Automatic annotation (TrEMBL):
Sorted UniProt keywords: Nucleus, Repeat, TPR repeat
Stored SMART domains: HAT
TPR repeat segments: 339-372
Protein name: Suppressor of forked domain-containing protein
Residue ranges, compositional bias (Polar residues): 720-731
Chain spans, region Disordered: 42-62, 704-799
Record organism: Aegilops tauschii subsp. strangulata (Goatgrass)
Sequence intervals crossing the membrane: none
Localization terms from the record: Nucleus
Length: 799
């Protein structure tokens, strides 16, 4: 059942009884009703995922809510968000209620170490040691995750803490067992240090026991410093201190022996960490979705595997293989549903001479991915290669049984397998059984006939099989072509022609294209000129019934000659000529369609009285007569010209400017306003703003002080106000005797304008152009504003 659907199941209290470990657990209450509480503790609504200070709704999470029962039941069982919600909510439940949820989760995600750890810790807290041991036995060997194994070792230490020397020995065995499996993990450094500390704390009673303990500690140190972990340097320092504390004389020789090995491990760790950092260790194993993240994770694991297979530390083969095996097992925790990883793992074992290990990997693979046919074929191939015929036969039989309705490929492969392993008679007997099945396709007939002809050298049996199949599969073009190829190998040209004639008389025209093509090729190679041309003409006539342009399909072209006189990759023309002829052939086939479209367009442009004269010619009869088709009036169409397009209508003020322009003028400094008002109107394409601004920034503009000088009068916009010339801020110009006051006001206005944000110059020019209405008006506006350089008042209003 789907994990999201588990919420619905929990809500209805209809869960099935638990298997094995948690069989005595009671039924689960309505956990789904508590999902909103989980979301509330996270600070979001139940259908949202918090990302820092930002919260974004998550539609997929909303489908897990108890109210959406129908959607919940239909959700994907590998929905990671639903699994996380369940796992988080289960933390607050009693173990009796939580156990069914964990079983559902782990049935879908059997390699999720964090769920196994959470599950077993729930029993450890309740002191249910037997159930905890059963759970550990189910997950430890398939989940080489360091946190799960540390949970295991802590559990063993807790269980044996009060058992004296016997308990210490059991704990020591547990440490050895753990480090044998996960001791090569990049994060196993603390475990090595914990084990050494445990060995040092063990009580000893005799000098012999002390000597044995020191020897054991030395061996553990020497193993630990060879593993490229994050604590390798600390382990080396501790080992140095340990040897010097035991015997300085002995320490010198041992340290000099292991110093290069330690340096190699430290260097490999730095390289190894680059690959480790690219891996997402919290990802759940789901079937392939083709997502970018999934592809990146696959590549990251393959890079790490390639790195480990190169044996960069140059350790012995046994240790290197153990490290590669550990990496593969870790990879399968996250790429559990990827058949290529299973296949690579098994073939790596087979190449290294461990066939038994490869077989075990394949057994795990087909159990993990029962729907992967290719893995089963690879498994059967391995079994057959080592002489295990009966196990291979069992695999083929399971393939056929699991795909009873669509198993033609499995039947064909099994026939070949029987012929290889049991002989011709066994293959023939099985074929006679298969051909009676209603699901048998023509592929089985072709495969068996070809095998009989090529391998058993029995042409008569092969031809009989083809003839029997022809009665059943005459309507299959593929079968007809295979039979024709077989007859060509027999040099039986008469039966080849007879086969083509029989098939073409029964096949509908739309399904006979390939058969006609092969018939024409046969006559081109083996027939005389008259038969070749005759078949070609018949082909054109037959296929013209399926073409919309029957007339052009019947015409002979130079391209047909090229098709008749080429052989394999040899052509009677250059590649350029061939491209040209192919293009002409394509144009000829599509010419009528283009003509129809053009006539339809032309007929829409005339009036009702002109319809009788439009489209007179060869294509007139092809026009549709339906009156429901709405056609455009092409006579009213005009050429697109953006210069003739009118801008938006903007109301103008009494001063001759728009309100937008007046508002912008109030924000401008006097020099900038002088520059803008004398710019010509924009016509044609808009300029590149970045380039224009860069030019302006490199130009020297007049300052506010220069504007007030008599030698350089400030030009202002044209106005119809009779009160006299105005300054740029709209005030009446003062007499010269108040020059100082005017300069002060202008400087204040310039300072205030510069403190505000600059307007968009080009937006302003577009507004002015829209107000002008056209090129002529824009030009007059430019002339009017240009007259202000001499201090003259604009005469626009008077004119």
């Amino acid at each position: 059942p789907a994990i999201p659907a588990l919420l619905l199941s929990l809500r209805r209290r209809r869960l099935p009884p638990l298997p094995a470990v948690a069989a005595r657990a009671p039924r689960v209450p309505a956990v789904a009703a508590r999902v909103p509480a989980v979301a509330a503790r996270r600070g979001t609504h139940p259908g949202a995922v918090a990302t820092g200070a930002e919260q974004r709704p998550n539609p997929s999470s909303q489908q897990f809510l108890p109210g959406n029962s129908a959607a919940v039941a239909a959700m994907d069982i590998y929905n990671v968000e639903a699994a996380e919600i369940l796992a988080h909510e289960t933390l607050n439940l009693p173990i009796g209620e939580a156990a069914p949820i964990y079983e559902k989760l782990l049935a879908t995600f059997p390699t999720a170490a964090k769920y196994w750890k959470q599950y077993v810790e729930s029993y450890i807290v309740t002191n249910d040691e037997e159930t905890a041991k059963q759970i550990f036995s189910r997950c430890l060997l398939t989940c080489p995750h360091i946190n799960l194994w540390r949970c295991y070792i802590n559990f063993i230490k807790k269980v044996n803490s009060k058992r004296g020397s016997e308990g210490l020995e059991e704990t020591k065995k547990a440490f050895d067992f753990m480090l044998n499996y996960v001791g090569n993990d990049v994060a196993s450094g603390p475990v090595w240090m914990e084990y050494i500390a445990f060995l040092k704390s063990m009580p000893v009673m005799t000098p012999q026991e002390e000597s044995h303990r020191m020897t054991t500690i030395r061996k553990v140190y020497q193993k630990a410093i060879l593993v490229p972990t994050s604590h390798v340097e600390q382990l080396w320092k501790d080992y140095d201190n340990f040897e010097n504390s035991v015997s300085r004389t002995l320490a010198k020789g041992l340290l000099s022996e292991y110093q290069p090995k330690f340096n190699s491990a430290k260097a490999v760790y730095r390289e190894r960490k680059k690959y480790i950092d690219d891996i997402d260790w919290g990802m759940l194993a789901t079937p392939s979705t083709g997502s970018y993240k999934e592809e990146q994770q696959c590549l990251a694991w393959k890079r790490l595997l390639t790195f480990e297979k190169g044996n960069p530390q140059r350790i012995d083969v046994t240790a290197a293989n153990r490290r590669i095996t550990f990496t593969y097992e870790q990879c399968l925790m996250y790429l559990y549903h990827h058949p290529d990883v299973w296949y690579d793992y098994a073939t790596w074992h087979a190449k290294n001479g461990s066939t038994d290990s490869a077989i075990k990997i394949f057994q795990r693979a087909v159990k993990a991915l029962p729907g992967s046919e290719v893995l089963k074929y690879a498994f059967a191939e391995l079994e057959e290669s080592v002489g295990a015929i009966q196990p291979a036969k069992t695999i083929y039989e399971s393939l056929i049984a699991e795909n009873a309705s669509m198993s033609s490929l499995a039947h064909i492969q099994f026939i070949r397998f029987l012929r290889r392993t049991e002989g011709i008679e066994a293959a023939r007997k099985y074929f006679l059984e298969v051909r009676k099945l209603p699901s048998c396709t023509y592929h089985v007939y072709v495969a068996y006939a070809t095998m009989s002809f090529c391998l058993d050298k029995d042409a008569k049996v092969a031809q009989n099989v083809f003839e029997v199949g022809l009665k059943r599969f005459m309507q299959e073009p593929g079968y007809v072509l295979e039979y024709a190829d077989f007859l060509c190998r027999l040099n039986d040209d008469r039966n080849v022609r007879a086969l083509f004639e029989r098939a073409l008389s029964l096949l509908p025209p739309e399904e006979s294209v390939e058969v006609w093509k092969r018939f024409a090729q046969f006559e081109q190679i083996y027939g005389d000129l008259s038969s070749m041309l005759k078949v070609e003409q018949r082909r054109k006539e037959a296929l013209s019934r399926t073409s919309e342009d029957a007339v052009s399909s019947l015409e002979n072209t130079l391209y047909d000659v090229v098709s008749r006189y080429n052989y394999m990759d040899l052509w009677p023309c250059s590649s350029k000529e061939l491209d040209y002829l192919s293009r002409q052939e394509w144009l000829a086939k599509n010419m009528s369609k283009k003509a129809d479209r053009s006539v339809m367009l032309t007929s829409g442009g005339g009036s009702t009285s002109d319809k009788g004269t439009v489209g007179v010619g060869a294509n007139a009869k092809l026009l549709p007569q339906s009156t429901k088709v709405v056609r455009p009036e092409t006579s009213r169409m005009v050429i697109y010209d953006p210069r003739q397009m009118k801008g938006p209508v903007i109301s103008a003020t009494s001063s001759g400017y728009t309100k937008e322009v007046d508002e912008i003028f109030k924000m401008l400094s006097p020099p900038l306003m002088s520059f803008i008002t004398n710019l010509p109107a924009i016509e044609g394409p808009s300029p590149d703003i970045d380039i224009v601004l860069s030019v302006l920034l490199q130009s020297t503009l007049p300052t506010g002080h220069d504007v007030g000088k008599p030698s350089a009068p400030v030009p202002g916009p044209a106005t119809t106000d009779i009160s006299g010339p105005r300054n740029q801020n709209g005030s009446v110009r003062r007499p010269p005797k108040r020059k100082a006051v005017e300069r002060q006001e202008e400087e204040d206005a310039a300072t205030a304008a510069q403190s505000r944000a600059m307007p968009d110059i080009f937006r302003l020019r577009q507004i002015q152009r829209s107000r002008g209405g056209g090129p002529a008006q824009s030009g007059s506006a430019a002339m009017s504003s240009g007259s202000m350089f001499s201090g003259e008042q604009s005469a626009n209003s008077s004119s």
